[in-house]
Every structure is written in C-alpha cells, then in structure tokens.
Amino acid sequence: MNDQPTASPPAGATAAADRKFSKARPLATRFGLHKKTLFRWADAGKIHRFKVNERVVLFDEAEVLAFVESARVG
C-alpha cells in the first residue's frame, strides 16, 4: 500500500479525462472557422495542438472556444 500523498492538479487546471479533443475540420465547422485558421492560431502560439501521429492532430475544444470568445468584437 502506498502511503504517499497524491498530488492534485494546480488550481484552474482540468484533468485530461475531463477534456474533449477534436480534429480541426469538425471543430472549425462547429465554430464557423476554416480549419487552416486553427493551425495558424497554433503556429502563432495562441492555442495548443496535440500531435497524435504523423496524420492526426487534435485541439482542445474548451481552449478553442475560450480563444474564440475572447477574440469576439462587440
């Protein structure tokens, strides 16, 4: 039995199990964007992308939504 205390995630961090990830195309369609926009934002460091393998790149839906909401004007 392990008597060591378990570390909790930092304040404001969400557990990986609570996060939802999607590919660029369905995510861009849902937010009314072009998929290349997501890749440009990731290249600029505005959002993160998670490369699963050579062909699969995923984006955190909550992070993209937060960025879209913060960038809205009016």
Structure description:
This protein is of the alpha+beta class. It has a single domain, classed as Arc Repressor Mutant, subunit A. 38% of the residues lie in helices and 12% in strands. It is built from three helices and three strands, in the order βααββα. The protein has a three-stranded antiparallel sheet with strand order 1-3-2. Strand 2 and strand 3 form a beta hairpin. The longest helix has 11 residues. It starts with 20 loop residues before the first strand and ends with a helix.
Whole-angstrom Rg? 15 Å
Helix content: 25-40%
How many distinct beta strands?
A: 3
Number of separate domains? 1
Helix segment tally: 3
Named CATH topology: Arc Repressor Mutant, subunit A
Arrangement of strands in the largest sheet: 1-3-2
Biggest sheet: strands, sense, closure?
3 strands, antiparallel
Level-1 CATH class name: Mainly Alpha
**Spans where pLDDT lies below 50 across 5 or more residues:** 4-9
From the coordinates shown, what is the CATH architecture? Orthogonal Bundle
So what's the overall shape? globular
Which tags fit this structure?
74 residues; alpha+beta; three-stranded antiparallel β-sheet; 3 helices; 38% helix
Task: Provide the fold topology.
Elements (H helix, E strand, L loop, with lengths): L20 E2 L1 H8 L3 H9 L5 E3 L5 E4 H11 L3
Antiparallel strand pairs: 1-3, 2-3
Helix pairs in contact: 1-2
Sum this structure up briefly.
With 74 residues, the chain is of the alpha+beta class. Helices cover 38% and strands 12% of the residues. Helix 1 crosses helix 2 (35-43).
